[in-house]
Amino acid sequence: GYGFIQKLPATIYASIMWFLRDSNLNKINFPFKEYYSASHFISLCFGFGTCLILYKSSKILKLTNPWIAPLLLISTPIFSGHSLFNIKDIPFAFFYTLFTYLSNDFYLRKKNKKRRLIFMITSAGILTSLKIIVLPIISIQIFFYNIVSISNFLNNNKIFKIAIKTILYTLTILIIAIILSPAWWDNPIDSIYKFFVEYQNYPWKGCMNIDGLCVGKFYNSSVNFSTLKYIFDWSFIKLSILNIFMIIISIITLTIVLIK
Question: Which helix (H) or strand (E) holds 210?
Fold first, then answer.
């Protein structure tokens, strides 16, 4: 399920146009064309914003050439193509990149920790409202940040404190996500259950057809689905070898910087 954050700018613009054309706000006069045009423009802005944040993240990590990462991203067909039309995935990419940037900013800098923590948690809440199944990944990422930012974390029960802190952060993020997702308000627990349990068997009829074979979990029930296999196939089909190599290097570099 998607929250309303990524739809908000286009909705505000379309609502203004709607009021200017019909002060009575008759439903049949809602400017859907303007709404979707604005949505695609906002998606393009999110795409450029993602590259900008990636550049700033590279500077925080003190990379020699911080412009390489955004250049590689924007030159990737799957990203640049989606930026022009996908009004869901690109905002998700933007807020995930923003969350990672704010996480680096929080754990690597010593000043204004409370303010930086609020920004990090809020960005994670917005990200989770866009697609709640990312919440476990966010929790693992926060847990990882806490571990590498504390020396001798196995001593004096520090690992227990890290776990408690991660749980508290995760619950706060979930609360923010629920607030930003009106569709969940009626029964948040049931909605979350459906996203993680029931929807895993949702019969998606789409298909990425590669040499006559579908990649991932599709309507054909005879396909033996494996999440890891799907991620592996998707990555090698959608990304170039250079992109995959740079992702691996980025993860290694981030780990080294945080450990230092």
Answer: strand 209-210
C-alpha distance from residue 88 to each of 40, 129, 215 (Å) = 10, 12, 21
Give the Cα separation of 252 and 227 in Å (integer).
24
Does residue 25 come out as left (phi exceeding 0), alpha (psi in the -120 to 50 range) or beta? left
pLDDT for position 176: 93
For residue 106, how many other CB atoms are within 10 A of its CB? 21
Span of 105-109, 123-127, 217-221, 226-230 with lowest mean pLDDT = 217-221
**Closest of 139, 140, 108 to residue 125, by C-alpha:** 139
The tokens for 259 are 């450990």
H/E element holding 213?
strand 213-214
* Total-model pTM: 0.74
What is d(CA 41, CA 35) in angstroms, rounded to the nearest whole number?
Answer: 10
pLDDT-derived band at 156, boundaries 50, 70, 90: low
Cα–Cα distance measured from residue 12 to residue 103, given in angstroms and rounded to the nearest whole number: 30
The half-sphere exposure of 120 on its side-chain side, counting CA atoms within 13 A, is: 24
Q: Are 165 and 147 in contact (CB under 8 A)?
A: no
pLDDT band at 98 (very low <50, low <70, confident <90, very high): very high
What sign for the dihedral angle of Cα 123, 9, 182, 91?
negative
